[in-house]
Amino acid sequence: MSYLVAGPEYLSAAANSLAGIGSTLGEANAAAAASTTDIRPCARRGVEGCDGAV
């Protein structure tokens, strides 16, 4: 049978690391949201009506 021993300092460090990753992902999501919500839907005009401008 395997046993696992986890020290509180290691768990705290892992939690802080995960919180940092979550914060970074949140910032990246916010930065990408502005550019992706401005994309004009080309489907309603057809391919010929798409000028590709964002």
TrEMBL record:
SUPFAM superfamilies reported in the protein's UniProt record: PE/PPE dimer-like
Lineage: superkingdom: Bacteria
Residue ranges annotated for the PE domain, each copy included: 4-44
InterPro entries listed in its UniProt record: PE-PGRS_N, PPE_sf
Pfam families: PE
The protein's name in its UniProt record: PE family protein
Origin species: Mycobacterium kansasii
